Amino acid sequence: MQNRLSQLIKEDGRCFFLAMDHGYFLGPTRKLERPGEMIAPLMPYVDALFVTRGVLRATINASASKPIILRVSGGTSIVGHDLANEGITTSVREVIRLNASAVGLSVFVGSDYERQTLLSLSTLVNECQEYGIPVMAVTAVGKELEKRDARYLSLCCRIAAELGANVVKTYWCEDFEKVTESCPVPVVIAGGPKCETQLEVLEFVSDGLQRGAIGVNLGRNVWQDDHPVAAARALQALIHEQATPQQANDVYLSLRNGSG
After folding, report:
1. I want to staple 238 with a disulfide (CB 3.0 to 4.6 A). Which of 21, 76, 233, 248 is the partner?
2. Active-site residue (options: 147, 169, 178, 194)
3. From the DSSP assignment, how many helices (H) and strands (E) are in the chain?
4. What is the domain partition of the chain in residue ranges?
């Protein structure tokens, strides 16, 4: 367990996970129509990839890969009735065969499928614990983005940790320290919808790090940017090089404008 976690969380105690699992419910998401082509140039700047087994098998070079966090929940789509109606889609035997460093699944606290997804988390923890595989719980809200406040997210993160999650992925919010201080396991920040500017991304990530997060698990705010490599490099500077948001944005602008 500690060996796998050390592959994901670096010696400085921080991490930059690149989320590219969106196709499991969104299909061919904009700018992720060909995931292999998007992943390759971003690999040098991230610590791990959060992907499904389908993308892992079909598009990622097995001899030159980053550590993998495998998305193991699903069963619904954006055009279906309720995104919360998820189950476990991938066996632990498959996780081991694919040499993943960790697994991740969503829990939907407060939804009609709360019990189902929380029991899925518990089942996954039970099975993965036997083989030393870390579990990341994703506190999902489906289409109800207004739920992203400190009181609700604190509830979600604490429950996920109580049920055995080793890491919790959740949204940044105002008073984010209320979320991290009440969660006994590491918290990573989710990206959510695409932001208007890269500086906006860097500012909320910096605030979350200062308030107790250990890193990020971002997707759309990297690969949907018009300059995804510049976006990834700027986040790397912020997370691992102690850059300020403005300094990291300068890195972004320099690379975007071709001068760095």
Report:
1. 248
2. 169
3. 12, 10
4. 2-224
